[in-house]
């Protein structure tokens, strides 16, 4: 359940400040949709695969990853800059977090988990 909290936290910190009013209203819907997509709506202990599916879905829905699973670095940067003003720190966070992994699911998981620790 830790990852779900991280994803929701990242969405609130990075996403809500830069989301449109429509997207802000959709956050509970996005969370629910991604929980269902990952098969986690009624599950207490997720598998790593389920967490990865959830993370990818969430990252796509808040505009950090494309439908094809590629990190949208400019969008990640813009969202991080909403909360972190130091350009050098933003660059360091991007180098560490915006890393394309072997699968889109692994990429989404890494991005969301990394942002939750590096850009709190």
From TrEMBL:
It comes from the Eukaryota. Keywords: Signal. One of its GO terms (molecular function) is odorant binding. Residues 1-18 form the signal peptide. The keyword Signal applies. This is Uncharacterized protein.
